Amino acid sequence: MAIKIYGSFRSPFVMAVALAVYEKEQEFELLMMNIKSPEYMNNFNPFGKIPSYQDEDITLFESRAIMRYVATKFEGQGAPLLGSTFSEQALCNQWLEVNGHSFTPAIVEMAFSKADTESSKLAFEKFEKVLDVYEARLSVSKYLAGDSYTLADLAHTPLFHIFMAVSDDEKKKCLTSRPHLHAWIQDISSRPAWKKVTERPENTFYKPRTESQ
Ligand SMILES: N[C@@H](CCC(=O)N[C@@H](CS)C(=O)NCC(=O)O)C(=O)O
């Protein structure tokens, strides 16, 4: 059975799973169902969320679990993704947790806060504190887990892509003013597998602004 990803490219988590599949040089079908239907909730994700993943061996939900599965299943193909040493593997897991528990909530809270309010200011400050942690890490390490690109880096690409696409130059300064962070975002966004994701015909939601990035 071909790999099936359920969801829409409006979701950064769906894009992250698609990116992991492409990094492993696999193809997939992107399918959408009514995610609150009994059929979807009983067979794919009882929480009624996207993405879900299916291949001949397994049906899975939760994007980071799916990415780990894909990286392990296709270990010998494409980019390694899990870290090349025992320490890198541990750091990859650590930074994937950071992605899930610190980075994603901070960027989502900022994106959903009402513009020019006290809560949007607080959300932005909170996001900047998270970015400071990334800047410090990336000033001593090429990638989050060490010398090689892993799932920890990959998990960030879609959310930064969306942030860059929907923000004006002033807002983007929180990225461009942190040189190591900015160079890393450019690096992880220039991978051929990411280009393949952005060039999928279903990817119509976040068009990059034309201003300088
Ligand atoms: N932790 C989940 C998050 C999934 C998630 O929140 N997906 C959103 C789209 S970005 C969704 O399905 N929202 C629909 C809903 O909550 O009804 C993952 O990483 O897969």
Automatic annotation (TrEMBL):
Domain called GST N-terminal: residue spans: 1-78
EC number: 2.5.1.18
Alphabetically ordered keywords of this record: Transferase
Reaction catalysis annotation: RX + glutathione = an S-substituted glutathione + a halide anion + H(+)
EC primary class: transferase
Gene3D superfamilies from the UniProt entry: 1.20.1050.10, Glutaredoxin (3.40.30.10)
Gene Ontology molecular-function annotations: glutathione transferase activity
One annotated GO biological process: response to toxic substance
Residue ranges annotated for the GST C-terminal domain, each copy included: 85-205
Assigned protein family: Belongs to the GST superfamily. Phi family.
Name listed for the protein in its UniProt record: glutathione transferase
Organism: Riccia fluitans
